[in-house]
Amino acid sequence: MLIKKTAPLVGGRGKLFVNREMTFGQWLRQKLNDKRMSNAELARRVHVSPTYVSNLVRDYSPNMISNRAPRPGEDIVERIARALGAPLDEARLAANYAPRSVEDGIFSGLDKLSPKMQRVAKAQIRAIIDSLQSETDTEDEN
Q1: Under a CB-based contact definition with an 8 Å cutoff, are residues 69 and 96 in contact?
Q2: Rounded alpha-carbon distances, angstroms, from residue 56 to 52, 60, 72, 129
Q3: In this predicted model, what pLDDT tens digit does every residue of 83-108 receive, in sequence order?
């Protein structure tokens, strides 16, 4: 398998699941080729436009500010993995999301909180992860 994730989740100035082996677009292109599926067929199965799939495969976004490849939302990654019959954690890693098992571990124990506090805690945890990811992206640009 070409995807390699060895970065630590926490500690120091370590990276959060940074994929240096391939972009999400390269991973997606490989899976499409393996399944002999067209961009249009995947788009139909995932309920997105063929142009959107083409942009993902080419690591292109019309709103691209930097040279950083666009990252699809978690729901799109999940739908793509399902449509391709690919492991969800593999797809999440390719898109630089934590594997579901790690994310579940991070959020474990929140069920002991009230529903309102669960929402607050989840939002804070996600904000921390996003902040660390943006710090990592900034370091990569330098």
Answers
A1: no
A2: 6, 6, 8, 23
A3: 999 999 889 888 888 777 666 677 77
Give the torsion through C-alpha atoms of 36, 39, 41, 44, to 10 deg: 150
Query: Which amino acid, residue 42?
Result: L
Q: Is 114 helix (H, G, I), strand (E, B) or coil?
A: coil
List all residues 6 or more positions away from 56 whose beta carbon is below 8 Å from its beta carbon: 24, 25, 28, 70, 72
- State the amino acid at position 24 in one-letter form: F
Domains and their CATH numbers in the chain: 24-141 (1.10.260.40)
Q: What is the token pair recorded at 130?
A: 């996003």
Show the tokens assigned to 106: 């991070």
- How many other CB atoms are there within 10 angstroms of residue 93's CB atom? 23
The whole model's pTM is what?
A: 0.61
Q: What sign for the dihedral angle of Cα 107, 108, 113, 114?
A: positive
- Give the rounded distance of the alpha carbon of 49 from its chain centre: 19
